Amino acid sequence: MERFHQWLSEQEGLHPPKGPMGKAVNYALNNWEALTRFLDNAYTPVDNNASERALRMAALGRKNYLFVGHEVAGQNLAGLYSLVATCQAHDVNPEAYLADVLLRIQTHPASQLDELLPQNWNRLFGRPEQPAQ
């Protein structure tokens, strides 16, 4: 990354600032701290592909969900969409999760509903994260 930063610094004066290469070089240099943040923490991803994929699904759905028939149906769909996305973010199979939780919620203590959240479900109820492939 140090060599890349040096190269960017060398390129800075060689390209017109309004040209595509000049804009790219200036962007990288102006955002260098953010661009190298992944070097400080091994858990920070190098890219934001996971975020982009999640936003892409929402953007594609926006047009599809425009005509759900009724406002309440749209709210229900948004809640279900959010639940499935949360399951996916925590490596939980949404179908298995919903099947288990819909049965379990009838007898589960209201004071312990946090246990049924997707992020806690695998750990507490010993369910496999994903079906065997």
In short:
By secondary structure, the chain is an all-alpha fold.
Round the Cα radius of gyration to an integer and report it.
23 Å
Domains, number: 2
- Distance N terminus to C terminus? 38 Å
Count of helices? Answer: 7
Fraction of helical residues: 55-70%
Looking at the structure, what is the overall shape? elongated
Which structural class do you get from the secondary structure elements?
A: mainly alpha
- Average pLDDT, all residues: 85
Tell how many strands the DSSP assignment holds: 0
> What portion of residues belong to β-strands?
under 5%
What profile does the largest beta sheet have? Answer: none
Q: Order of helices and strands, N to C?
A: HHHHHHH
Low-confidence parts: none
Keywords:
2 domains, mainly alpha
